[in-house]
Design goal:
Shape: elongated
CATH class of the largest domain: Alpha Beta
Order of helices and strands: EEHEHHEHHEHEEEHHEEEEEEHH
Radius of gyration: 22 Å
CATH topology of the largest domain: Rossmann fold
CATH architecture of the largest domain: 3-Layer(aba) Sandwich
Largest sheet: 6 strands, parallel
Number of helices: 10
Strand content: 25-35%
Strand order of the largest sheet: 1-4-3-2-5-6
CATH superfamily of the largest domain: HUPs
Number of strands: 14
Distance between the termini: 28 Å
Structural class: alpha/beta
Length: 316
């Protein structure tokens, strides 16, 4: 999968394309269906498939610190798309004031029809684009009528009597409903990053942790979870993780710390992926480290029991 960075990257594209546009935050089950349709159509037309996305996401540009937490960082999204989709390219546009003020007509003409020579454009049924979100399916169909470009809208995927959306996934994670989030995503929710040195407090109470560097301090979930870790050899490792501010030791920054069961190797500087399997409890403050240690023993047993259960085995 090729990454095209910004509008300047289009100068060397110069080939017809099948295109879709969107944030694709989380790449949930609905997104996956759109990408399957796009890639299927691209193969029929004999052209490459291209996803246009943005960094930062438009709602982050406008809302700033008040924006809801994203489900995936850009690197995580690109890694997933490269590994799990048949996309040929991703065009990542820096979302700036100039792009925000670009009219829908100019966006469609300059980027879609001229820049990517789109032969086919697939939109979600709720997608809008251009200045003040004035662009829609009808506008694209009108502009593309003379170029022979086919424009199609895809209906939302419905699960549980409601459309699948990044907002629903985010809400499920915030409520601790990991099973619902997994269902909407079509896979376990995953966080990834590099293992870095922490303050090594865990080892003093018998629970050494892999401190995974987070590029963002605003996540959709918090608490203590049973997890699976990938990226260390061929085996998937299991354990438990804390996502939060560690109130027992007056922590001030968000940490993602994973305790792996029956594992003692040094994995500093390794890039790992961690699947969130089920929530064990909310993060809480303990009066002493001994009290925390007692609770961690309980958490570990609950997590081990879950991984040994038929529920976990049937979901593997």
């Amino acid at each position: 999968m090729r990454l095209i960075r910004g509008l300047s990257g289009l100068e060397c594209w110069q080939k017809p394309s099948a295109v879709t546009i969107g944030n694709f935050d989380g790449v949930h089950y609905g997104h996956q269906q759109m990408l399957s349709r796009l890639c299927e159509k691209a193969k029929q037309l004999g052209v490459p498939s291209v996803l246009i996305t943005f960094e930062p996401l438009p709602h982050e540009f406008f809302a700033g610190d008040k924006a809801p937490p994203r489900l995936m960082g850009l690197r995580e999204k690109l890694q997933y798309l490269s590994a799990k989709s048949d996309l040929d390219a991703v065009l990542c546009l820096p979302f700036s004031q100039s792009l925000a003020q670009l009219s829908a007509e100019r966006f469609a003409q300059d980027i879609l029809l001229d820049g990517l020579s789109a032969q086919y454009i697939l939109l979600g049924d709720d997608f809008r684009f251009g200045y003040q979100r004035q662009g829609d399916l009808a506008l694209l169909q009108n502009l593309s009528s003379h170029s022979g470009c086919q424009v199609e809208s895809m209906f939302s995927v419905i699960i549980g009597n409601a459309r699948v959306s990044s907002t629903r996934v985010r809400q499920a994670l915030a409520e601790g409903n990991v099973a619902q989030a997994t269902h909407l995503l079509g896979r376990p929710y995953c966080l990834s990053g590099r293992v870095v040195k922490g303050d090594q407090l865990g080892r003093t109470i018998g629970y050494s942790t892999a401190n995974i560097y987070l590029r963002r301090q605003n996540l959709a979930l918090s608490g203590v979870f049973a997890v699976q870790l990938r990226g260390i050899g061929k085996e998937t490792l299991v354990g438990m993780a804390n996502i939060g501010f560690r109130p027992t030791v007056n922590g001030r920054e968000l940490r993602f710390e994973v305790n792996l069961f029956d594992f003692t190797e040094d994995i500093y500087d390794r890039y790992v992926e961690v699947d969130i399997v089920t929530k064990l409890r909310d993060e809480q403050r303990f009066d002493t480290l001994d009290s925390l240690k007692v609770q961690l023993a309980v958490d570990e047993q609950v997590a081990r029991d879950y991984f040994a259960s038929s529920v976990y085995l049937s979901n593997k």
